[in-house]
Amino acid sequence: MKAVLLVVLSCTAYLASAGPMYKDELGDYPRYIDFPDGEGKLHRVDLEAEPDYALLDEVTRNPANNQYILFTRQNRRSGQTLVINNQNSINRSNFNARRPTIVVAHGWLSNQHTDINPTIRDAALNAEDVNVIVVDWRRLAMSDYATAARGVPAVGRGVGQFLIFLNRVTGAPFNTMHLVGFSLGAHLVGNAGRELGGRAARVTGLDPAGPLWNMNSGRLRGSDGVYVEAIHTDGGVGGLGIGSAVANADFFPNGGNSQPGCALSLCNHNRAWELFASTLTRNHLVGNQCSNTLQITTNSCRGSRLNMGNNILNKRGSGLFRLDTGRRYPF
Question: Which GO terms describe its biological process (predicted)?
Fold first, then answer.
């Protein structure tokens, strides 16, 4: 599997002896950071840059900037475009309200074609008969990081409004919807779930973004769905993902800092969606509950067990969980 980055940075860090905790907005990062886009090209990012307020105003006023691409077992490779407030686009599609629906949101500098989307799409459709809706929010995602981060809540609310429209015209219940997002996309689906009043069956954040989110009320949180899960794979000092608990159940594979088989932070970060995709078809990764973050760091968690990932809509759990994985897919 290609390890293409849908990248964002983290402003939280693991302390050497105490595990993940909150820090200030920039955390251990300098103002300027180099990191790659979805094609692996490095970009210099100014975490204190003035955002593009005109673009932020546009995405706030116009949720139709988002594209919604439907894939089902009837059209595994050729997506069908669903349009908010256009019932004909739904009626002409293969959307089936009797099936569960998985909504997938990419991260920064990415789009519907970036690896996370076909990987999760294929795994989900191989596992069960579902609707997979890929959210392409490139209108904002392709802007500078400071602008994209600030616009994520508005874009997420737009996704929530689309799902309310979908529910109204098809009857698809919110309790059969699972919202999944990576990096900035994790906070995006959190806001989408919030727009639904926390009624989505599940919200899953895959290595949620850190910079500009640590003290941000718009970040992913446990009330965004009936059950909210986060998978942290790159939360160490200088890592690309947030290293602190944000959900009902927070999983820290291999301690949540670095992943086996990875030499770079980028690989660690991407591992979150790779692990999740694998669990959709295998449901084989199981964590032990931890009493505190020190147990995560020292790999001494001995509490109750909970499967990480998967698409079980009535899944429940809470607390911190540690598990160990293999070096390569299916881990």
Answer: lipid catabolic process
